[in-house]
Amino acid sequence: MDADESRPVRRRTAAAAKRAPVRRPRKLARPELDAGPQQEVRDLLYGLHEKAGMPALEDLAKQIAGDDRLDGSPKKDLIHRIISRGGPASLVDVRAVTQTLARACGLDEYTVAAQVNHLVRPPEQPSVPGPLPSPRSTDLATLVELEQRAIARMRERLQSLQLSADVIRELETRRQELAPLVDFRLAPSPTVIVGDLGSGKSTCADMLHQGAIGRARSDATAPWPVFLQARDLTADKLEAAVRAASPPAAASWHVIVDGLDEVDRDTARGLLAQARHMDYLSTGSEILLFSRPGYISIDAVVTIPPLTDEQIELILTIAGGEHTRRWSLPRALSAEAVKPLFALLAARFLHHGTRRFRTPIELLGDLAEEVLDRESMAGVDVHAALRRLATRTIAGRGRVRGREAGPLEIRQALVATRLVVQDSEVLRFASPILEQYFAARALLEKEVPLAQQLVSLRAWELWRSAWLLAAAIGTWEESSEPLAALVEAHPGAAAWVLGEAVPLTDPPLHGEAAVEPDSQARVRLAVDAWSAALPHLFASWAAGPMADPSARLAIDCGNGWVDLAVEEQGLGSRRQGVALSTHPAAPWRAALHLAERSAVEVLTAMRTRPDIDVLRGEWWHDRATGLIPTSFSATQYRLHETMTFTERVAYYGTELLSRLDEFGAESFGLRDQQYTRGEVLELVNIAQAGDPDGLLADPWPGRDAGPIPPDAVWSGYRADQLTARVRAVHLAAMKAYEEIVGRYFPTLAATMERALLVPYRVEYHIFVGATAGATTVLIPLVAGEEVRVDIAVESHENINSAYARGRLSKVHELVIARRPDGASWVWTSVHGGRINVADRMPATNLAVRWVWDDLNRLRLIRKKTPPSW
Asked: Among residues 834, 735, 822, 818, which one has the least CA distance to residue 781?
């Protein structure tokens, strides 16, 4: 071929290109190093590099260079030295490599970076014991001022409860005895400390802050104490605020951020991320954030414990007098006295001889009203301005810009009441309770459009606390229209509000209870509204639009009692009675109680004669099993062993029918079950026909007949048999649950936990050994998927509380993402207890218990557990 002649170029085909070799991960060298921090850093990063799939060093360098959040920018050679030798390299470069590898492994980059940070940085404390350096005089004066502010905050909270000066002085003197026993030392920093309303979160924060101040006053090297309110911060300014509140020489901090739940979740997550960033930048710092439970997901959570019995008695004695004891509290408040706020308020009101409160919500409402009675401003309608402010602060997550609150005169009047705090250009209430109270008054005064709140459960959720107070403190004229609208739009939310805020009965009183003259009309209005919202429950009461026209509802109110009678042509009458308390919203609560009784009847009937298809086979098999004796004579036993189950049912059923004929009885009891002659005859006919429809067959996979196998893990079941039975029972119970809810409680489904989670994937962790039990985790799936059951049988209990909390936080995030409208009604997705798939009618028990638990959380059913067999 000539030199000038062109040669054809051989091109690779697509198939050949696919077969082209790809880069294989290259394992880095791992030289021997002397024991020490450098070796520990190398071992940690080397392990992360392997776990991440041994990414190329060039790729790591590009990722680090393109990440603005990282301070370091190591090149390929330096990254190689950091991973294979642990350095030497600057701290920022080591942290950059650490965070990038941790992210690739799916780990918390800040936690891993903090480990490396503590290994690379030398200890700041002196290694030789000696006298601790004292703070400078300027720092000492600042610490004294910080302590005075903390004491003032605690005193202001006590004064807001209208406690006497002597009581406040005694509480301050004995505050160490009343301090909550919060131990956060074992939890990694930053730590979120959570507590319910009234549990003393702010008081706990101030006491921990004072402890940090005391340590800083005696030791100049101790972390500098900083106390911040979450409402005063933005998501990316935590570090700047901490440095601004501390002297320039401070190298570590004891930071407390109070009110994390008073900002939106995005801001709270940003503050948490900033706290993690600060934690690994500074050795020896402690960062504590205070919030309500479930507001933000984090593994390091410490819960403020309830008061001990000794602490409750001490608070009641100090604030209520020597004769005030826990047993003297109303039943509803006695259970709430484990929270400091409720214990103080109850003691104070009982000490002054005021009326006995029936719900904690009533007590809070009366407290707010008593404070307001002493506040007035001439020339300005302050109460109306406070109501308008509450409607704006609720929409603004607790704060509003000053100009949005009204003209200067109104803003000055608001601040002068001491109920509102002004921070720069922002106004907020001094206490969330006050905000809830004035928002409730705005509801009752018809100053808030109901249609705007009730358009969805998510919109209503912002006003949940205000609705509670409105139901508790409003008169009949004020609350009847909002409650009727809530019952119509969201009956589940209405049931919860009434169950929480309105008592069903009054405490014992002398003489007869006072009943309003128009109670009969009020009860009828409430029953009509509830029957329209829950038509399937009230149908038998002939109280609503779906009632039989031939039926008549009679309501008789007298002596504090509501008597309802349904008279139907040719059927006689059916009567139901319920106590009527003197609360203005009592008719709504009494009508809800009728729904409760109907719901209990419906769920109880599922065990006696279910009308749910998936449960009928289980019921028939259970009834048939009950006819067969559990003990036999020798002759009977031999006969028993030669017959099939269907033949045994026919044999013993025929024998029982002859006994009924002999004694002329139409029904009988057998092993806690009641049988009628007709039922036994029906069972015998089915058995004699050979059970063509399979009604008498065991509907669930069971263990094999014969001796227990050597590889049985529990109750004669092998692991595969137990897994098959659990899956079959759970899926059947879930189908039954959905059918029960769809048939009897369709309007409540939007607020029932398990109905909200459907479809879901359930993780069963069954542990067997000396004891047997199971932990289940419900994980919501995307709409349209099918319910799935994943089962693991363990030889011992390894599902501990830390695992449950970790799963709960992750599942809660999925609930918020996939069920945003109903996320607040999902109380928990992690459940534990005994294995109940070997009980009588296990699917029925599970389905009934699930529905019962959901209705109990809505306060529609007050009893915690369904009736036993």
From this structure: 818
- Residue with the bigger pLDDT between 342 and 522: it is 522
- State whether the Cα torsion 402-404-408-414 is positive or negative: negative
Strands 426-429 and 420-423: antiparallel
Distance CA 597, CA 589 (A): 13
Q: Closest Cα partner for 419 from 160, 197, 163?
A: 160
Question: Nearest to residue 602, comparing CAs of 828, 825, 860?
Answer: 860
Is 439 in contact with 394 (CB distance < 8 Å)?
A: yes
* 202 in Cβ contact with 153 (< 8 Å): yes
DSSP H helical segments within 556-612, as ranges? 586-608
495, burial (CB in 10 Å: exposed 0-12, middle 13-18, buried 19+): buried
**Crossing angle for the helix pair 519-533 and 586-608, nearest 10 degrees?**
40
Task: Give the H or E element holding residue 762.
Answer: strand 760-767
| Residues in CB range of 155: below 8 A, 6 or more apart | 168, 172
Both tokens of 688, joined, read: 């004699």
Place of tokens 């507001």: 295
Q: Which two tokens stand for residue 444?
A: 């009752």
Cβ atoms 664, 589 nearer than 8 A: no
Dmax (CA) for the chain in angstroms is 126
**Alpha helical stretches, state H, 374-431:** 382-395, 408-416
Q: What is the pLDDT confidence band of residue 739, given thresholds at 50, 70 and 90?
A: very high
pTM score, two decimals?
0.62
| Backbone torsions φ then ψ of 549, nearest 5 degrees | -60, -25
